[in-house]
Design a protein that fits this description.
The protein is of the alpha+beta class and 426 residues long. The protein is built from 13 helices and 25 strands.
Length: 426
Amino acid sequence: MQENILIIGNGGREYAMGLVLKDDKRVEGLYFAPGNGGTHALGTNISAIKHTDILESIKKYAITLVIIGPEAPLSEGLSDFLKEHNVRVFGPSLAASRLESSKAYMKDLVSQAGIKTARYMQSSDVKTLSEFIYTLTPPIVVKADGLCAGKGVIIAQSHSEAITHTKEMLSGKAFGNAGMRVVIEEFLDGYELSVFAISDGKDFIMLPACQDHKRLLSGDNGPNTGGMGAYTPTPLCDETLLEKIKKDIIAPILDMMRKQGSPFVGVLFGGIMVCERDNELEPYLLEFNVRFGDPECEVLMPLLQTPLLDIVTHAIDGKITQLECKMKQKYAVAVVASSKDYPYKSSPAVPISVKEFDMNLGHIVYAGVSKTESGEILASGGRVLLAVGLADSLSLARDNAYEIMRHISFDGMHYRDDIAFRALGK
């Protein structure tokens, strides 16, 4: 069967999925809603944003499959809406998406499931939260309950700083309605991993663990961002550790979701903190997201040996365990180039210059870009693009990513120079 596929979203994650689907001979047409200035080269961009407009576009272009990339449309019930209109869609329901759209709900559910996580308190009352803050030893984690595009987490260095940030969130000044309920957590010391399970509502398969780099500046300095780079596979997660994550974190939450009548179908993304306890590495859950991470998706997609289309359709059809998900025996490193003022404010659109480079090194993924009428690609703000390096070793993949980046320039361009430093030691 030939497929006409619509990918919902406009970032690097959606571009990366489109890049692998474009080369699948079973894909007749590829569409993006709304897409970005780079996805024009992969398929057709559709301006539809509202649910009803998306449905009209599905009918117009004879779409046979919809893949929802970002968290926002999932939290707005797009998956449910499309299923009600007999559209095949890959993405969890509104009820299942609460795992990401409400950190308070997620933490409570995780505790009920007996999953290891940081000690916490969730409330909208500043007095209750302040009392809990004083039971913790700084640094202290302050989280807005709702969706904040990866920026709603603050690491406070003192009790007073934690209370100040809590008050700012609850007042609506910091993150609007997303911060009207706050989660306070103890700080866990260790290293972070991103893990991804593809679930069909009953069973699941795991993809290789990735490591993201949230801080803006090299050396893990500066403010949190949506992610400045990622790599996979990582030597910081062996089979023993991955099995612990699978058994003690992923399986229990999917079982809980199914038992409470909200079976999870789609990509479950676990943010994991690995801590040393009694000379053993123990995984603790930081948070769940309900879609591929960005920039993790950009390093996972080019390593898929099993086609993405097969993974998606097997999940939708409840047959994920009938699929053997194979990965290429390679490494991928993605380095994000961001705009001048990211993440503080938007930047004016500026032209991007890309000099010719050896395509064997890897490729470019476009994200925060627009396209002029003459076809020129502009850096339009935020995380603009990613240089993705591929190789047989992690060190060479990183070298390849930075070699590609040296061929790219735009006014105000910023990127970290140390992606994968925890694995490579420099």
